[in-house]
Amino acid sequence: MSDPRLPSCLELPNNLDELNDLIEKAKDWALMHGAGMRSKTNFSMDSLQFAPFCLVPSVFPRKEFEKAVAIQETLNELIHKVAFCHEFLEESLRDSAAGDSEFTGRLYKIYETVRKEGFNPRLTLGSVRSDVMLETACCKSRMRSETHKCSQTRTYCCLKQVEFNTIAAGFLQLGPISGQLHRFILQEMGHIDKLKNLPENNALAGASLGLIEAWKLFGNKQSVILIVIEDVVMNICDQRFLEFKIGELCPEARTIRRTLTDINKRARLDDHKNLIIDGFVVAVAYLRTGYTPELFANDGEWDALLTMERSSAIKCPSVQYHLAGTKKVQQLLAKPGVLERFITDPQKVKAVRELFTGLYAFDFDESGEKAIDMAIENPERFVLKPQREGGGNNVYGTKIRDLLIEMRSSKERTGWILMDRIVPPAQENIIVRVGKKPASEDIVSELGIFGIIIGDAQKIVYNKQVGHMLRSKTSTADEGGVAAGFGCLDSPYLVDYC
User: Fold this and answer.
1) Alpha carbon separation from 386 to 174, 354, 370 (Å, rounded)
2) What is the pLDDT of residue 14?
3) Is the pLDDT of residue 481 over 80?
4) CA-wise closest residue to 19 among 432, 493, 428
């Protein structure tokens, strides 16, 4: 039996030379509308190149897209309640913090410090993204629990969550612009009739409005939104367009950009715990960095994070939100009976649980040993994940076996989780890359749904699903992050059959 496949949204030409003019025009459109990045190989602060993209939008079943959109506000609420539940974070991360002392452990130490001092302010802002893929392998002979079984229908079984991102969730610009690029391409190809199947995407505006709302809730019109950035920003369009959109929607809300080093050297707390940098009072501290240990160059940058956490600025994310997005928390939420601690509606619990795939911990107990044995015996069935975001961190194939054998007796193993490898259906598309001849290839896609949520331990004051993104990669590739150099921009073409 052949592997399940999705149809392309249109018949792709065999002779790509016929498309040369269109492809060149599409590259220019992408650059001129913000679908760009800085080059890692020929880096210059003064130049951009277009981000790799699929020439046409990729087919995605409408009912699964709508399901992912509909559940996002429930996921926002879930992660918010987890972030404010100290008992759950403590029981979830005690071992992981010890096993990943250079990162999760340092985050947890900051969390404990500010918890004891009293969180300031009580409000926190979440700009989050839930990433999902279509699954084809649920019904094959895989060691899944009854919870994760589902009935096969045509080319896929169901939708499964890859991960939940609570820090530096990118594609707020690149997601919407990908759909606009595909609208342009389909029009140029004479397929105006197909435009109705490209869903509206307001992720950039939605996230901007969330940051503006947090700025307003801070209550100081002279304050600023601080965007905390890496020393060198490659994904510049995704960040800058958010700044520009905030200025367009609310000219009073000023944005500034500073690095962790800048904050460590020049920021201070006044008598009211206001965060002051270069004379500005910070209303919202929005992090687009800090999601891996490599992004902290020294102890001073960790001190900068602690200073922000101690301040009155509304953090996005706060340290407890960052911890709530770790893989270990996601693994524990998938265990029977855990979701009910945070969601009271049985139908919502059922919908969220159906989204989870198999997730396994490496605790020093019988289940942890069983998980290691299972992965060593059949490593191709799994993905090994550390407590990291940003792409390029996961382990696949026989490397899983080698790493688990190496760290089986070490506490380091508790800093990782094991996840059933999702097997999505492939489809044909043409990938356009910088410096390479476009080629028709089999690709697989990952859908991300964005959410914005604001609240404290007692009350949620703002909760919205705000848009989506789609990124794709060749079907033989493991990682899919575009900024990390693995994937390409895409957008969903919704169909009622698959």
Assistant:
1) 26, 23, 19
2) 78
3) no
4) 432
488: alpha, beta or left, given left = phi > 0 and alpha = psi -120 to 50? beta
pLDDT-above-70 percentage for the chain? 94
Q: Which two tokens stand for residue 94?
A: 């005690």
Instruction: Look at strands 124-135 and 267-269 and give their pairing.
Output: unpaired
- pLDDT tens for 257-288 read 999 999 999 999 999 999 999 999 999 999 99
List residues bridging with 224 in a β-sheet: 254, 282
Q: In the numeric block, which tokens belong to residue 481?
A: 């992050």
Cβ(462)–Cβ(89) below 8 Å: no
Amino acid of residue 365: D
Spatial neighbors of 6 by CB under 8 A, at least 6 apart, are: 58, 59, 155, 156, 425, 426, 427, 498
Overall pTM surpassing 0.85 (yes/no): yes
Among residues 62, 23, 55, the alpha carbon closest in space to that of 490 is found at: 55
Alpha helix ranges (H) inside 380-466:
398-407
- How many Cα atoms within 13 Å fall on the side-chain side of residue 338? 21
Let me know: does 37 contact 433? Beta carbons within 8 Å: no
450 vs 102: CA distance, rounded Å: 29
Angle between helices 203-218 and 174-188 (to 10 degrees): 150
Among 471, 476, 422, CA closest to 446: 471
**Strand, helix or coil for residue 248:** helix
Q: Per residue in 158-167, pLDDT tens?
A: 999 999 999 9
Cis ω for the linkage preceding 61 (within 30 of 0): no
Residue 488: which H helix or E strand, with range?
A: strand 488-490
β-bridge mates for residue 49, sequence order = 37
Tally the residues of the chain.
498
Residue 148 has pLDDT above 60, yes or no: no
Dihedrals φ, ψ of 264, to 5°?
Answer: -65, -40
